[in-house]
UniProtKB/TrEMBL annotation:
<comment type="similarity">
    <text>Belongs to the transglycosylase Slt family.</text>
</comment>
<dbReference type="InterPro" id="IPR023346">
    <property type="entry name" value="Lysozyme-like_dom_sf"/>
</dbReference>
<feature type="domain" description="LysM">
    <location>
        <begin position="323"/>
        <end position="366"/>
    </location>
</feature>
<dbReference type="InterPro" id="IPR008258">
    <property type="entry name" value="Transglycosylase_SLT_dom_1"/>
</dbReference>
<protein>
    <submittedName>
        <fullName>Lytic transglycosylase catalytic</fullName>
    </submittedName>
</protein>
<dbReference type="InterPro" id="IPR036779">
    <property type="entry name" value="LysM_dom_sf"/>
</dbReference>
<feature type="domain" description="LysM">
    <location>
        <begin position="416"/>
        <end position="461"/>
    </location>
</feature>
<dbReference type="Pfam" id="PF01464">
    <property type="entry name" value="SLT"/>
</dbReference>
<dbReference type="InterPro" id="IPR018392">
    <property type="entry name" value="LysM"/>
</dbReference>
<dbReference type="Pfam" id="PF01476">
    <property type="entry name" value="LysM"/>
</dbReference>
Length: 464
């Protein structure tokens, strides 16, 4: 809710009362127009500038803290959005809604990172009662937000209208469209409630901030390391925060911060299961403990339940292995994230990097799930371009057999070209073209299977 943004603004101004300096609006406008965003078309607007002044001038300290919190939440947001085939840029919506405070609550009762009202949350399958409020469960509320956003986009076929409806509800957007002033957000903006009329500009400002905060001298304030490298498991047994604290040594404050959905500081038994999130370094202790005390073989009566709970299901990446990677010339964090199966933000948080810039010879700490071995040696490969297909004049052979040149032309026509848009392995590329084989792609392009193909590389693929 934008009300939360106002509170964020007042709070940060009180903590950091700076004299407002003039922003270079011409340069900001240029950057806005240069941004590529699949959700909105960034544009200059007085409301956009108002939000940017709060982020970049009046509330700099709060902004730096918020940018640090993104390392806790954005990797999960990105994963859920990807799994739902939604634009990654939608993660900026959480900044508009809650400034990444997991216990945020609005004046009308919307709650959590994605600011759901209780009826909406229940309609999306979230539990909201005296014991548990899954609007504050990071994983389940994010999954619910993805479901809701997908349904809104299906309804409006326009992301700006969809996120406006996320704020005000579909009904208000539909009524504004029926007034006939236009079919897009900017045309009907004057017919929307004031908060919704400011909502897309707020989203544009948040998106600008994520892409350009370094240019304005902002430095993210990193949270404690134990809040950054975390793991979640699905628990079906009774488990109190006190028990978790005694078992792991993690403070009750940290357990509570990572698990804000449990109003009574305890996870109840259930067949559905509830997520428990903890620092990854202690999760194995919890997993072993719960496994040893399952109802079908319990040795500690205090954890026995009457429910025939299934085995605790461990989410991917429960046990992490640390790798030490030396950066090669031209290597980027995006490429490393693709190789190791993580995100750029995660690599930045693990290494306390303030920017995504890395230098050759720099060593990086990278974590990967135990058992997930790299299938190929990491090597650099320069982008190359194949010789384009010859433009041949029609040939009328005098002999019945086809001439050599005609055969070459036919051979060219039996191939297609694929240009990589991100670093990919040969294995991934082979999967994109059913029927083709790994050996065929390697032979045609003179490649070895243990290489990563850089973004922008043009590959020759046989047509089937």
């Amino acid at each position: 809710m934008l009300t939360l943004f106002l509170c964020f603004s007042l709070e940060t101004q009180a903590k950091n009362p700076t004299n407002e300096t003039e922003l270079d609006e011409a340069e900001i406008t240029r950057r806005l127009h240069a941004m590529e965003n699949r959700v909105v078309k960034p544009r200059y607007d007085p409301v956009v500038m108002s939000y940017l002044k709060t982020y970049l001038v009046r509330g700099r300290e709060g902004t730096e803290q918020m940018l640090g919190r993104r390392f806790i939440y954005f990797p999960l947001f990105e994963d859920v959005l990807f799994q739902n085939d939604l634009p990654e840029e939608l993660k900026a919506l959480s900044i508009v809604e809650s400034a990444l405070h997991n216990r945020a609550i609005s004046r009308v009762g919307a709650m959590g990172l994605w600011q759901f009202m209780a009826p909406t949350a229940r309609s999306l399958g979230l539990q909201v009662d005296a014991n548990i409020d899954e609007r504050r469960d990071t994983r389940r509320s994010t999954e619910a937000a993805a479901t809701y956003l997908k349904s809104l986009y299906k309804q409006f076929s326009d992301w700006e209208l969809a996120i406006a409806a996320y704020n005000s509800g579909s009904g208000r957007v539909i009524r504004a469209l029926k007034r006939g002033r236009g079919s897009n957000y900017w045309a009907i903006r004057g017919d929307l409630p004031r908060e919704t009329a400011n909502y897309v500009p707020a989203f544009i400002a948040a998106s600008y901030l994520l892409e350009n905060f370094e240019k304005h001298g902002l430095t993210p304030k990193f949270p404690a390391e134990e809040l950054l490298l975390t793991t979640s498991i699905l628990v079906h047994q009774d488990l109190s925060f006190d028990q978790v604290q005694k078992l792991t040594g993690v403070s009750l404050e940290t357990i509570d911060f990572l698990n804000p959905a449990y109003n009574r500081k305890s996870i109840p038994a259930s067949t559905r299961g509830y997520y428990l999130t903890l620092p990854s370094k202690v999760m194995e202790k919890v997993r072993v403990y719960l496994e040893a005390n399952r109802p079908d073989g319990a040795s500690k009566p205090e954890l026995i339940t009457s429910i025939n709970a299934p085995k605790v299901r461990e989410l991917p990446a429960t046990i992490m292995v640390e790798e030490r990677h030396e950066v090669s010339a031209g290597e980027t964090l995006a490429e490393l994230a693709s190789i190791y199966g993580c995100t750029t933000d995660k690599i930045m948080e693990w290494n306390k990097l303030e920017t995504a810039e890395v230098a050759p010879g720099q060593f990086l700490k990278i974590f990967r799930p135990k058992g997930r071995e790299l299938k190929f040696r990491i090597e650099r490969m320069e982008a190359f371009s194949l010789i384009p297909m010859l433009q041949l004049d029609p040939i009328q052979p005098t002999e019945p057999e086809i001439t050599t040149m005609a055969k070459d032309a036919a051979a060219h026509e039996s191939f297609q070209y694929y240009v990589t848009t991100r670093p990919e392995s040969i294995f991934e590329i082979t999967d994109r073209f059913p029927g083709t084989t790994l050996q065929d792609i390697l032979k045609i392009n003179d490649l070895s299977s243990n290489r990563i193909i850089r973004a922008g590389t043009r590959l020759k693929i046989r047509k089937l």
